[in-house]
Design goal:
This protein is α+β, with helices and mostly antiparallel strands. The protein has one helix and five strands.
Length: about 90
């Protein structure tokens, strides 16, 4: 990964994404990635990051509990940032 950019396989194509954060979950041995992509809107996305031998793939989070876990983590990180400087990111 170079300069927070990562090339992943998506719909059988290589796509460059901007990595915002990678979350390691030791309980289920999964990695979650928060990202956005050039040429798309300013929103960010969350997916399961799977590392293959020579590439990465993104998988949709289909389990509601998993998604809630990642969402709670991100909210706590935002609250921590707001508490550090008194301003929202």
């Amino acid at each position: 990964m170079e300069d927070n950019k990562l090339t992943v396989k998506f719909n059988d194509s290589d796509v460059d994404i901007n990595v915002i954060d990678i979350i390691d979950n030791l309980d289920n041995n999964k990695k979650y990635i928060v990202y956005n992509a050039d040429g798309f809107d300013d929103d960010f996305y969350i997916s399961i990051l799977e590392e293959m031998e020579d590439s990465y793939t993104l998988q949709e989070i289909t389990d509601e509990n998993e998604f809630k876990m990642v969402e709670d983590y991100l909210e706590s990180m935002l609250e921590e940032e707001e508490g550090n400087d008194g301003q929202a990111i």
